[in-house]
Amino acid sequence: MNSSKKVLRASEINIEFYLFLVSKLYSEYNRNTNFELSGLSSKSAIFSVYDYLQEKKSKQEKINLITDVLRCNDRNEVQKQIYSSYKAASYYVNLAKEKLNLLNSTNKLSLHGMELLSIRTQRHSTNLTKAEKVLYFKLLTKNDFLLFISLCLFKKLEFKFNIENIENLYFDFINHFYGIKHFNYNNRSLSNYNIVREAWINQIQVLTKTNQIKSEYLKIIKNDPITSKWFTDLSLNFTTYVNENFKNDRSFESKKLDFIKLYKKCIDDKKDVQGFVNLYDIKESIRISYIKFNEFISKFYEDERSKRHIFFSNIVSSIDGRKRFIVRGRPVLKIKFKHEIK
């Protein structure tokens, strides 16, 4: 079959794989009550879909039923489960083609697909053998190197600095050094790919306990002249980003917290006039130069203005000859937040 020149349409392989997946998961859920894997349809959904499809005796009748469900807009509960589980199955096929190259242009098993099929697997479906992990890693570094390995590097940063969410930093890095715009990743399907990359990192066990790439995987990267060069370039860019962007951003975030705390203290100490606090009262506690403070205020405004209402004023009740700060070309001396900062 694999040597056949016949080209299988995407819809054909998707529906064939879907029927296989429903049957396979039904058997797994029946055999193992603790079977559970992120990204797979739930046990209740698979049981409902399986029973619904069993009402049709022939395979073609099942295919016709699924096709009708996909085409209609008004679906009952089980039909909604068919629709969502079919979309998930199609997504798996797309991953196998685009990210792993396990299928060729005619939607038949590629050489890599045949290699994967030849590997003796574990009895439990969710446990990967060492050979499977190595093959998956090689395919991912060949077809998804930039985004996959970049995420691994940012996982190290996440651990080292105890960062709760590295997604914005990760996208900022990709955009800054490789010109891939952040908005390209707001698409839901592309966002899902990143969730899948996280799962790959865990299932293949790419990282150590401190989120370093394991030596055995680094060796695979460096033994290939192409991925070795990619890794050298990526590592240099990552180091530059950490030193020039990330550390500056962390310093800014720290100053921002201090600024907000001092603003609130001025309010509590009644140093404000109708909520307006003199910027020099805050600057004296932060103890940085006029130029640095002016740079900070300008950046603070641009960073926070979409999150909270910020007002500036240059009006004082008595003569204040101190040099004004300049924000967006306007001289300012006082700042006010419309809503209390928490």
Characterization of this structure:
The chain contains 13 helices and five strands. The N and C termini lie far apart (64 Å). Helix 1 packs across helix 4 and helix 7 crosses helix 11 (225-268). 17% of the residues are buried. With 342 residues, the chain is mainly α. The longest helix has 44 residues, at 225-268.
Which of globular, elongated, flat, extended, rod-shaped describes the shape? Answer: elongated
Sequence of strands across the biggest β-sheet: 1-5-2
Order of helices and strands: HHHHHHHHHHHEHHEEEE
SS summary, helix count: 13
Alpha carbon gap, first and last residue: 64 Å
Question: Which terms would index this structure?
Answer:
three-stranded antiparallel beta sheet, elongated, 342 residues, 62% helix, single chain, two-stranded antiparallel ribbon, mainly alpha, 13 helices
